[in-house]
Amino acid sequence: MVTGYILLFIVIVILASxxxxxxxxxxxxxxxxxxxxxxxxxxxxxxxxxxxxVYSVISVQNRSVELEFQAVTVDQANxxxxxxxxxxxxxxxxxxxxxVAFKFVDERNLMQALIRTVEGSIRAFVATKRQADVLIxxxxxxxxxxxxxxxxxEGWGYHLQDLQLNDITxxxxxxxxxxxxxxxxxxxxxxxxxxxxxxxxxxxxxxxEGNAIKIAAEAEREAAQLRGQGIALFREEVAKGMSVxxxxxxxxxxxxxxxxxxxxxxxxxxxxxxxxGNVIFLDGSGEGMKRTMQEMMSMTMLKQQxxxxxxxxxxxx
Length: 317
What we know:
By secondary structure, the chain is of the alpha+beta class. It folds into four domains: 2-59, no CATH class; 63-170, Band 7 domain (Tetrahydropterin Synthase, Chain A, 2-Layer Sandwich); 176-252; 255-307. It is built from nine helices and eight strands. The strands form three sheets. It has a three-stranded antiparallel beta sheet, covered by helices on one side. It has a three-stranded antiparallel beta sheet with strand order 6-7-8. Strand 2 (26-32) and strand 3 (35-40) form a beta hairpin. It is rod-shaped, with a radius of gyration of 58 Å. The termini are far apart.
């Protein structure tokens, strides 16, 4: 009876061990007596108890590792890199899983080979570049690494998903000199911008001053023209008024010299009202007025003579 229970227990243990569960994102490698047999996909799987064994469980999820290493440029400058490497199993094919499971002894050896391969590829690329070019070649470095090691990683069963160069630095003395170069370039650019701004300001001020002079000259020209026209109209109106007054004086049988006398007195009145403190010397005596009237009357009589028509025309012009 006891033997029967023991046999039943052994059968239950064997049946229980014949089922195994593989988690999502992983693949189990099955061997028989140490030799590769097959792979088990995620989920509940059956294996031959006591014969088939799980050699390893491989994750097909993405994995990352951080790198820190140094490289030397062609002009002997030390460059320090901090990078993040993202990689994963190439695919879930059986041959790929066999490579992942059996190419390396363990995970530590895989990581060592992967890191050294990436570092060597970057060092070889940087060794052909100058120090000043390294900072602007970040994308080129990543593309070079992918191109160089993708085929090698495929032989191992892996694929390089991404390589991020998070930090690229140089020796302190080089960083300081680079900062000085940047600062001097900024000062140069600022000086050039300030010079351009000053040139623009001076140019605009000169243009504004020129425009102002041009506008003032144009206004002065128009004002002079208007003043001339006003004077001409004034003289024309005065002539018309004098003609009308002379005709009226002749009709009234009065001497036209009275008009000249009136104009003379009005002129003296105008001088006195608008002199603004200026001193004007006039002969206000009776003899002076008589002499002035005689001169004005003689000019009038001279103009009335027939032989002086040409002279009169010339004077009127």
